[in-house]
Amino acid sequence: MNLTEELMKIEINLEKSFDSKRYEPPVREAFYLNNWIRYKKNLNDLDYTGIKQARVLFRALKELSAEDREFLAMKYDPPSPNTTRITDEVMAKQVGMTLHEYRVKRRLIQKRLKKIMVKHKLEAQER
Predict the structure, then answer these.
(1) Which end of the chain is more exposed for a tag (fewer CB within 10 A), N or C?
(2) Rounded-to-integer distance, Cα 68 and Cα 2, Å
């Protein structure tokens, strides 16, 4: 199974996991990933909502494989806090992939992360 097929399969499973009888705002993993460096850098200064969001992200990242977590970290958690986020084009060259291959792999990993985040959200609602 190639990456595109696996991505489509994950999306279908995500859609099935939502309860259509009640509205819950969707989990936007890109929002959490884009704030990853802010959560780390300003952990002591985060408000209640920021702390909850950081907890959601870091719990989900912990469940990803080390390889997937490292792949996302290269883009969203640069080694130097003053570094601007690296573009997909630059990242693709660094990891030796075409731009398309890189984006497909990144999105696939992000979908895995989203699935974990949704699972945590549903478990929290059941408590």
Answers:
(1) C
(2) 16
Q: What is the per-residue pLDDT for 12?
A: 67
First to last CA, the chain: 36
Cβ neighbours for 98, distance < 8 A, ≥ 6 positions apart: 92
Query: Whole-prediction pTM value?
Result: 0.75
Element (DSSP H or E) covering residue 57: helix 48-63
Residue 118, both tokens:
């949704």
Query: Which pLDDT score, from 0 to 100, does residue 82 have?
Result: 67
Token pair, residue 89, equals 């084009």
- Residue 67, pLDDT score: 96
Cα–Cα distance, 80 to 5 (Å, whole number): 35
**3-class SS letters over 82-114:** CCCCCCHHHHHHHHCCCHHHHHHHHHHHHHHHH
In the chain, which residues have pLDDT < 70?
A: 1-4, 6-25, 81-83, 127
CA distance 62 to 53: 14
